[in-house]
Inverse folding.
Protein backbone atom coordinates (compact mmCIF):
# COMPACT_ATOMS: atom_id res chain seq x y z
CA UNK A 1 0.00 0.00 0.00
CA UNK A 2 1.12 3.56 -0.65
CA UNK A 3 0.79 6.43 1.80
CA UNK A 4 0.93 10.07 0.70
CA UNK A 5 1.42 13.42 2.35
CA UNK A 6 -2.33 13.94 2.10
CA UNK A 7 -2.94 11.01 4.44
CA UNK A 8 -4.32 8.83 1.62
CA UNK A 9 -3.54 5.12 1.52
CA UNK A 10 -3.69 3.31 -1.84
CA UNK A 11 -3.99 -0.46 -2.27
CA UNK A 12 -4.58 -2.97 -5.08
CA UNK A 13 -6.70 -6.13 -4.68
CA UNK A 14 -7.10 -9.28 -6.73
CA UNK A 15 -10.92 -9.28 -6.64
CA UNK A 16 -14.00 -7.48 -5.37
CA UNK A 17 -14.64 -10.00 -2.59
CA UNK A 18 -11.40 -8.94 -0.91
CA UNK A 19 -12.35 -5.30 -1.39
CA UNK A 20 -15.74 -5.76 0.26
CA UNK A 21 -14.20 -7.53 3.25
CA UNK A 22 -11.60 -4.79 3.62
CA UNK A 23 -14.25 -2.06 3.41
CA UNK A 24 -16.35 -3.83 6.07
CA UNK A 25 -13.32 -4.06 8.38
CA UNK A 26 -12.49 -0.39 7.79
CA UNK A 27 -15.97 0.63 8.85
CA UNK A 28 -15.72 -1.59 11.94
CA UNK A 29 -12.69 0.40 13.13
CA UNK A 30 -14.47 3.70 12.54
CA UNK A 31 -13.42 4.67 9.01
CA UNK A 32 -16.63 6.05 7.51
CA UNK A 33 -17.67 5.13 3.98
CA UNK A 34 -17.24 8.72 2.71
CA UNK A 35 -13.48 8.36 3.39
CA UNK A 36 -13.17 5.26 1.19
CA UNK A 37 -12.93 5.37 -2.62
CA UNK A 38 -13.18 2.20 -4.71
CA UNK A 39 -12.08 2.17 -8.37
CA UNK A 40 -12.74 -0.70 -10.77
CA UNK A 41 -12.09 -0.68 -14.51
CA UNK A 42 -15.33 -2.29 -15.68
CA UNK A 43 -17.36 0.57 -14.24
CA UNK A 44 -15.69 2.94 -16.71
CA UNK A 45 -13.92 4.88 -13.96
CA UNK A 46 -10.44 6.19 -14.74
CA UNK A 47 -7.75 6.75 -12.14
CA UNK A 48 -5.39 8.92 -14.17
CA UNK A 49 -6.70 12.11 -12.59
CA UNK A 50 -6.52 10.55 -9.14
CA UNK A 51 -2.87 9.60 -9.56
CA UNK A 52 -2.01 13.08 -10.81
CA UNK A 53 -3.75 14.74 -7.86
CA UNK A 54 -1.84 12.57 -5.41
CA UNK A 55 1.46 13.51 -7.03
CA UNK A 56 2.86 9.99 -7.03
CA UNK A 57 6.28 9.29 -8.59
CA UNK A 58 6.03 8.25 -12.23
CA UNK A 59 7.06 4.64 -11.59
CA UNK A 60 4.54 4.21 -8.80
CA UNK A 61 1.74 5.88 -10.75
CA UNK A 62 2.52 3.57 -13.68
CA UNK A 63 2.24 0.55 -11.36
CA UNK A 64 -1.26 1.50 -10.16
CA UNK A 65 -2.41 2.30 -13.68
CA UNK A 66 -1.20 -1.09 -14.98
CA UNK A 67 -2.93 -2.92 -12.16
CA UNK A 68 -6.11 -0.97 -12.81
CA UNK A 69 -5.97 -1.78 -16.54
CA UNK A 70 -5.58 -5.47 -15.59
CA UNK A 71 -9.00 -5.30 -13.87
CA UNK A 72 -7.56 -5.28 -10.36
CA UNK A 73 -9.63 -3.04 -8.05
CA UNK A 74 -7.85 -0.04 -6.51
CA UNK A 75 -8.91 1.33 -3.13
CA UNK A 76 -8.01 4.73 -1.68
CA UNK A 77 -8.63 5.51 1.99
CA UNK A 78 -8.39 8.93 3.61
CA UNK A 79 -6.79 7.58 6.76
CA UNK A 80 -5.93 10.84 8.52
CA UNK A 81 -3.48 10.08 11.33
CA UNK A 82 -4.26 6.33 11.17
CA UNK A 83 -2.21 5.58 8.06
CA UNK A 84 -0.24 2.66 9.49
CA UNK A 85 -3.33 1.05 11.01
CA UNK A 86 -5.21 1.30 7.70
CA UNK A 87 -2.13 0.12 5.79
CA UNK A 88 -1.87 -3.02 7.92
CA UNK A 89 -5.60 -3.73 7.71
CA UNK A 90 -5.61 -3.56 3.91
CA UNK A 91 -2.59 -5.87 3.71
CA UNK A 92 -4.28 -8.44 5.97
CA UNK A 93 -7.24 -8.47 3.59
CA UNK A 94 -5.06 -9.21 0.54
CA UNK A 95 -4.16 -5.69 -0.55
CA UNK A 96 -0.73 -4.85 -1.97
CA UNK A 97 1.26 -2.06 -3.59
CA UNK A 98 4.48 -1.85 -5.59
CA UNK A 99 6.62 -2.47 -2.50
CA UNK A 100 4.61 -5.39 -1.11
CA UNK A 101 3.75 -7.08 -4.42
CA UNK A 102 6.61 -9.57 -4.10
CA UNK A 103 5.52 -10.54 -0.58
CA UNK A 104 1.98 -10.95 -1.88
CA UNK A 105 3.27 -13.32 -4.57
CA UNK A 106 5.25 -15.30 -2.00
CA UNK A 107 2.13 -15.69 0.15
CA UNK A 108 -0.28 -16.64 -2.64
CA UNK A 109 1.96 -17.80 -5.47
CA UNK A 110 3.01 -21.33 -4.49
CA UNK A 111 1.45 -24.70 -5.26
CA UNK A 112 1.90 -28.14 -3.73
CA UNK A 113 2.43 -31.24 -5.82
CA UNK A 114 2.81 -34.87 -4.79
CA UNK A 115 4.77 -37.60 -6.60
CA UNK A 116 6.67 -40.80 -6.02
CA UNK A 117 9.58 -38.80 -4.64
CA UNK A 118 7.39 -37.08 -2.06
CA UNK A 119 5.77 -33.72 -1.79
CA UNK A 120 7.48 -30.78 -3.43
CA UNK A 121 6.85 -27.05 -3.16
CA UNK A 122 7.08 -25.26 -6.49
CA UNK A 123 7.49 -21.50 -6.59
CA UNK A 124 5.91 -19.80 -9.55
CA UNK A 125 7.73 -16.99 -11.30
CA UNK A 126 6.15 -13.56 -10.96
CA UNK A 127 5.51 -13.31 -14.70
CA UNK A 128 3.63 -16.62 -14.82
CA UNK A 129 1.58 -15.77 -11.75
CA UNK A 130 0.44 -12.45 -13.13
CA UNK A 131 -0.55 -14.00 -16.46
CA UNK A 132 -2.56 -16.69 -14.68
CA UNK A 133 -4.49 -14.16 -12.66
CA UNK A 134 -5.41 -11.90 -15.54
CA UNK A 135 -9.09 -12.33 -16.49
CA UNK A 136 -9.91 -13.87 -19.87
CA UNK A 137 -13.61 -13.16 -19.99
CA UNK A 138 -16.33 -11.54 -17.89
CA UNK A 139 -19.93 -12.61 -18.48
CA UNK A 140 -22.92 -10.94 -16.80
CA UNK A 141 -26.11 -12.88 -16.14
CA UNK A 142 -29.19 -12.90 -13.95
CA UNK A 143 -27.41 -14.81 -11.22
CA UNK A 144 -24.42 -12.46 -11.02
CA UNK A 145 -21.08 -11.91 -12.77
CA UNK A 146 -18.96 -14.93 -13.73
CA UNK A 147 -15.27 -14.15 -14.18
CA UNK A 148 -13.00 -16.73 -15.78
CA UNK A 149 -9.24 -16.75 -15.27
CA UNK A 150 -6.53 -19.16 -16.20
CA UNK A 151 -6.20 -19.99 -12.54
CA UNK A 152 -9.85 -20.35 -11.48
CA UNK A 153 -13.49 -19.69 -12.37
CA UNK A 154 -15.73 -18.13 -9.78
CA UNK A 155 -19.03 -16.33 -9.52
CA UNK A 156 -20.03 -13.17 -7.68
CA UNK A 157 -23.64 -13.28 -6.49
CA UNK A 158 -25.61 -10.98 -4.16
CA UNK A 159 -25.52 -11.79 -0.44
CA UNK A 160 -29.22 -12.50 0.40
CA UNK A 161 -30.85 -9.77 2.44
CA UNK A 162 -32.48 -12.29 4.80
CA UNK A 163 -29.06 -13.75 5.65
CA UNK A 164 -27.57 -10.26 6.12
CA UNK A 165 -30.31 -9.50 8.63
CA UNK A 166 -29.53 -12.71 10.53
CA UNK A 167 -25.81 -11.88 10.61
CA UNK A 168 -26.54 -8.42 11.96
CA UNK A 169 -29.01 -9.70 14.57
CA UNK A 170 -26.48 -12.25 15.87
CA UNK A 171 -24.23 -9.38 16.91
CA UNK A 172 -26.72 -8.76 19.70
CA UNK A 173 -25.73 -12.14 21.18
CA UNK A 174 -21.96 -11.70 21.34
CA UNK A 175 -22.09 -11.19 25.12
CA UNK A 176 -24.57 -13.99 25.85
CA UNK A 177 -23.82 -17.03 28.02
CA UNK A 178 -25.82 -20.04 26.90
CA UNK A 179 -26.90 -23.46 28.14
CA UNK A 180 -27.47 -26.06 25.40
CA UNK A 181 -29.64 -29.05 26.29
CA UNK A 182 -29.44 -31.84 23.69
CA UNK A 183 -32.13 -34.50 24.12
CA UNK A 184 -34.21 -37.06 22.25
CA UNK A 185 -38.01 -36.95 22.30
CA UNK A 186 -40.20 -39.92 21.39
CA UNK A 187 -42.58 -38.37 18.84
CA UNK A 188 -44.15 -41.65 17.71
CA UNK A 189 -47.64 -40.95 19.22
CA UNK A 190 -48.09 -37.40 17.83
CA UNK A 191 -46.77 -38.41 14.40
CA UNK A 192 -49.17 -41.36 14.32
CA UNK A 193 -52.06 -39.00 15.03
CA UNK A 194 -50.93 -36.67 12.24
CA UNK A 195 -50.70 -39.61 9.81
CA UNK A 196 -54.17 -40.75 10.84
CA UNK A 197 -55.49 -37.28 10.08
CA UNK A 198 -54.10 -37.56 6.57
CA UNK A 199 -55.63 -41.03 6.11
CA UNK A 200 -59.05 -39.69 7.11
CA UNK A 201 -58.89 -36.93 4.54
CA UNK A 202 -58.15 -34.20 7.09
CA UNK A 203 -55.43 -31.69 6.24
CA UNK A 204 -52.41 -33.05 8.14
CA UNK A 205 -51.19 -30.84 10.93
CA UNK A 206 -47.83 -29.14 10.61
CA UNK A 207 -45.42 -30.79 13.04
CA UNK A 208 -43.80 -27.42 13.72
CA UNK A 209 -47.22 -25.99 14.61
CA UNK A 210 -47.72 -28.85 17.09
CA UNK A 211 -44.33 -28.16 18.70
CA UNK A 212 -45.22 -24.43 18.89
CA UNK A 213 -48.44 -25.32 20.74
CA UNK A 214 -46.52 -27.52 23.18
CA UNK A 215 -43.96 -24.76 23.70
CA UNK A 216 -46.73 -22.23 24.34
CA UNK A 217 -48.24 -24.50 27.00
CA UNK A 218 -44.91 -25.25 28.71
CA UNK A 219 -43.88 -21.57 28.82
CA UNK A 220 -47.36 -20.55 30.03
CA UNK A 221 -46.73 -22.74 33.08
CA UNK A 222 -43.26 -21.26 33.67
CA UNK A 223 -43.01 -17.75 32.23
CA UNK A 224 -39.56 -17.06 33.67
CA UNK A 225 -37.99 -19.10 30.85
CA UNK A 226 -38.98 -16.36 28.38
CA UNK A 227 -38.11 -13.45 30.67
CA UNK A 228 -36.63 -10.35 29.09
CA UNK A 229 -33.92 -8.55 30.99
CA UNK A 230 -34.50 -4.84 31.58
CA UNK A 231 -31.42 -3.08 32.84
CA UNK A 232 -29.38 -4.79 35.54
CA UNK A 233 -31.95 -5.47 38.24
CA UNK A 234 -35.27 -6.28 36.56
CA UNK A 235 -36.85 -9.06 34.51
CA UNK A 236 -39.97 -8.59 32.42
CA UNK A 237 -42.37 -11.56 32.43
CA UNK A 238 -44.81 -11.41 29.54
CA UNK A 239 -48.27 -12.99 29.84
CA UNK A 240 -48.38 -13.95 26.16
CA UNK A 241 -46.04 -16.49 24.61
CA UNK A 242 -45.14 -15.05 21.20
CA UNK A 243 -43.23 -17.70 19.24
CA UNK A 244 -40.85 -16.75 16.44
CA UNK A 245 -40.84 -19.16 13.49
CA UNK A 246 -38.96 -19.14 10.17
CA UNK A 247 -41.67 -19.89 7.59
CA UNK A 248 -40.90 -20.81 4.00
CA UNK A 249 -42.50 -18.40 1.55
CA UNK A 250 -42.19 -18.37 -2.22
CA UNK A 251 -40.61 -15.12 -3.44
CA UNK A 252 -39.85 -14.68 -7.14
CA UNK A 253 -40.08 -18.42 -7.73
CA UNK A 254 -37.73 -19.34 -4.87
CA UNK A 255 -38.63 -20.61 -1.41
CA UNK A 256 -36.91 -18.58 1.26
CA UNK A 257 -37.40 -18.54 5.07
CA UNK A 258 -39.13 -15.40 6.31
CA UNK A 259 -39.62 -14.27 9.88
CA UNK A 260 -43.05 -14.83 11.41
CA UNK A 261 -44.27 -14.52 15.00
CA UNK A 262 -47.23 -16.54 16.30
CA UNK A 263 -48.83 -14.23 18.83
CA UNK A 264 -50.21 -15.66 22.08
CA UNK A 265 -49.38 -19.26 21.19
CA UNK A 266 -50.28 -20.23 24.75
CA UNK A 267 -53.93 -19.42 23.96
CA UNK A 268 -54.09 -21.21 20.59
CA UNK A 269 -54.45 -24.83 19.56
CA UNK A 270 -51.98 -26.54 17.25
CA UNK A 271 -54.62 -26.47 14.50
CA UNK A 272 -55.08 -22.71 14.88
CA UNK A 273 -51.34 -22.17 14.70
CA UNK A 274 -51.15 -24.45 11.65
CA UNK A 275 -53.87 -22.45 9.84
CA UNK A 276 -52.15 -19.20 10.75
CA UNK A 277 -48.86 -20.39 9.25
CA UNK A 278 -50.58 -21.59 6.07
CA UNK A 279 -52.35 -18.24 5.71
CA UNK A 280 -49.00 -16.45 5.96
CA UNK A 281 -47.47 -18.73 3.33
CA UNK A 282 -50.34 -17.96 0.96
CA UNK A 283 -50.02 -14.19 1.26
CA UNK A 284 -48.92 -12.34 -1.90
CA UNK A 285 -45.25 -11.40 -1.83
CA UNK A 286 -46.09 -7.69 -1.63
CA UNK A 287 -47.94 -8.24 1.66
CA UNK A 288 -45.22 -10.21 3.39
CA UNK A 289 -43.66 -8.08 6.09
CA UNK A 290 -39.91 -7.72 5.78
CA UNK A 291 -37.35 -5.38 7.31
CA UNK A 292 -37.95 -1.83 5.98
CA UNK A 293 -35.44 -1.01 3.21
CA UNK A 294 -34.16 2.08 5.04
CA UNK A 295 -33.42 0.01 8.15
CA UNK A 296 -31.71 -2.73 6.10
CA UNK A 297 -29.48 -0.12 4.44
CA UNK A 298 -28.58 1.45 7.77
CA UNK A 299 -27.67 -1.91 9.31
CA UNK A 300 -25.59 -2.87 6.27
CA UNK A 301 -23.73 0.44 6.16
CA UNK A 302 -23.10 0.96 9.88
CA UNK A 303 -23.52 -2.49 11.49
CA UNK A 304 -21.52 -1.77 14.62
CA UNK A 305 -23.16 1.55 15.49
CA UNK A 306 -26.61 0.28 14.48
CA UNK A 307 -26.34 -2.79 16.70
CA UNK A 308 -25.21 -0.81 19.73
CA UNK A 309 -28.08 1.61 19.23
CA UNK A 310 -30.55 -1.25 18.70
CA UNK A 311 -29.35 -3.10 21.78
CA UNK A 312 -29.57 0.06 23.87
CA UNK A 313 -33.14 0.79 22.72
CA UNK A 314 -34.42 -2.79 23.05
CA UNK A 315 -32.87 -3.27 26.49
CA UNK A 316 -34.97 -0.35 27.70
CA UNK A 317 -38.12 -1.18 25.75
CA UNK A 318 -39.17 -4.81 26.28
CA UNK A 319 -42.52 -4.21 24.57
CA UNK A 320 -40.74 -3.09 21.41
CA UNK A 321 -38.56 -6.21 21.56
CA UNK A 322 -41.67 -8.39 21.94
CA UNK A 323 -43.36 -6.65 19.03
CA UNK A 324 -40.37 -7.05 16.73
CA UNK A 325 -39.12 -10.54 17.58
CA UNK A 326 -41.54 -12.29 19.93
CA UNK A 327 -40.65 -13.76 23.32
CA UNK A 328 -39.13 -17.12 22.36
CA UNK A 329 -38.31 -18.96 19.15
CA UNK A 330 -38.20 -22.19 17.16
CA UNK A 331 -36.22 -23.19 14.10
CA UNK A 332 -36.68 -26.52 12.33
CA UNK A 333 -33.57 -27.93 10.66
CA UNK A 334 -35.38 -31.20 9.95
CA UNK A 335 -37.59 -29.48 7.38
CA UNK A 336 -34.53 -29.08 5.14
CA UNK A 337 -33.26 -32.68 5.27
CA UNK A 338 -33.82 -36.15 6.65
CA UNK A 339 -32.01 -37.94 9.46
CA UNK A 340 -30.16 -34.82 10.61
CA UNK A 341 -28.72 -34.78 14.12
CA UNK A 342 -28.87 -32.01 16.70
CA UNK A 343 -28.56 -28.38 15.76
CA UNK A 344 -26.22 -26.35 17.96
CA UNK A 345 -26.70 -22.57 17.73
CA UNK A 346 -23.75 -20.25 18.10
CA UNK A 347 -26.06 -17.95 20.02
CA UNK A 348 -29.68 -16.81 20.15
CA UNK A 349 -31.29 -13.46 20.81
CA UNK A 350 -33.92 -15.20 22.98
CA UNK A 351 -33.87 -16.42 26.55
CA UNK A 352 -35.44 -19.64 25.25
CA UNK A 353 -34.94 -21.10 21.78
CA UNK A 354 -35.70 -24.54 20.31
CA UNK A 355 -33.84 -26.19 17.44
CA UNK A 356 -35.72 -29.12 15.90
CA UNK A 357 -33.25 -31.50 14.30
CA UNK A 358 -33.95 -34.67 12.37
CA UNK A 359 -36.33 -37.52 13.26
CA UNK A 360 -34.83 -41.00 13.24
CA UNK A 361 -36.37 -44.43 13.74
CA UNK A 362 -34.61 -46.76 16.18
CA UNK A 363 -35.43 -49.34 18.86
CA UNK A 364 -36.93 -48.08 22.10
CA UNK A 365 -38.54 -49.61 25.18
CA UNK A 366 -42.31 -49.16 25.61
CA UNK A 367 -44.13 -50.92 28.45
CA UNK A 368 -41.16 -53.23 28.90
CA UNK A 369 -41.10 -54.22 25.24
CA UNK A 370 -38.62 -53.30 22.52
CA UNK A 371 -40.26 -51.54 19.57
CA UNK A 372 -39.22 -49.27 16.71
CA UNK A 373 -39.92 -45.67 17.71
CA UNK A 374 -39.39 -42.27 16.10
CA UNK A 375 -37.15 -39.87 18.00
CA UNK A 376 -36.80 -36.13 17.48
CA UNK A 377 -33.34 -34.65 18.04
CA UNK A 378 -34.20 -31.58 20.09
CA UNK A 379 -31.84 -28.81 21.24
CA UNK A 380 -33.09 -26.32 23.83
CA UNK A 381 -31.02 -23.15 24.21
CA UNK A 382 -31.28 -21.02 27.37
CA UNK A 383 -29.75 -17.69 28.37
CA UNK A 384 -27.67 -18.74 31.37
CA UNK A 385 -27.69 -15.16 32.71
CA UNK A 386 -31.41 -15.67 33.44
CA UNK A 387 -31.95 -19.46 33.68
CA UNK A 388 -29.78 -21.82 35.74
CA UNK A 389 -29.15 -25.47 34.96
CA UNK A 390 -31.68 -27.02 37.35
CA UNK A 391 -34.44 -24.74 36.12
CA UNK A 392 -33.57 -25.57 32.51
CA UNK A 393 -33.70 -29.32 33.24
CA UNK A 394 -37.15 -29.07 34.82
CA UNK A 395 -38.50 -27.09 31.88
CA UNK A 396 -37.13 -29.53 29.29
CA UNK A 397 -38.66 -32.46 31.20
CA UNK A 398 -42.09 -30.80 31.13
CA UNK A 399 -41.78 -29.88 27.44
CA UNK A 400 -40.91 -33.49 26.57
CA UNK A 401 -43.95 -34.73 28.50
CA UNK A 402 -46.24 -32.47 26.48
CA UNK A 403 -44.73 -33.49 23.14
CA UNK A 404 -44.64 -37.23 23.85
CA UNK A 405 -48.24 -37.24 25.09
CA UNK A 406 -49.45 -35.52 21.89
CA UNK A 407 -50.71 -32.48 23.79
CA UNK A 408 -54.16 -31.44 22.48
CA UNK A 409 -54.00 -33.56 19.33
CA UNK A 410 -56.79 -36.04 20.11
CA UNK A 411 -59.26 -33.26 20.91
CA UNK A 412 -58.29 -31.45 17.71
CA UNK A 413 -58.86 -34.55 15.56
CA UNK A 414 -62.49 -34.64 16.70
CA UNK A 415 -62.89 -30.88 16.11
CA UNK A 416 -61.38 -31.16 12.63
CA UNK A 417 -63.74 -34.00 11.70
CA UNK A 418 -66.75 -31.99 12.90
CA UNK A 419 -65.61 -29.03 10.77
CA UNK A 420 -65.11 -31.27 7.71
CA UNK A 421 -68.58 -32.79 8.02
Amino acid sequence: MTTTDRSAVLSVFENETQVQQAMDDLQRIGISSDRIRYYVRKSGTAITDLLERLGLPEQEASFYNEEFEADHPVVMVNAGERQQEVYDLLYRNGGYDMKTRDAHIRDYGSIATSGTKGEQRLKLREELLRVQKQPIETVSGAGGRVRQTKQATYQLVPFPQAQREIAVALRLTEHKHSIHVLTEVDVTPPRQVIQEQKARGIEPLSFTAFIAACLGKAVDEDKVVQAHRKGRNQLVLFDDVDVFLPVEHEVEGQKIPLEYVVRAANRKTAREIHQEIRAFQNLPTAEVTEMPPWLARMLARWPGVSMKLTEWVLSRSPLLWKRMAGTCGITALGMFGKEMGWGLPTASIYTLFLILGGITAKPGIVDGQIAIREYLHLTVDFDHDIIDGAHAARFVTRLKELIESGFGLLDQVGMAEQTRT
About this structure: The domain at 2-107 is CATH 3.30.70 (Alpha-Beta Plaits). Residues 109-136, 414-421 have pLDDT under 50 and may be disordered. The two ends are 76 Å apart (CA to CA).
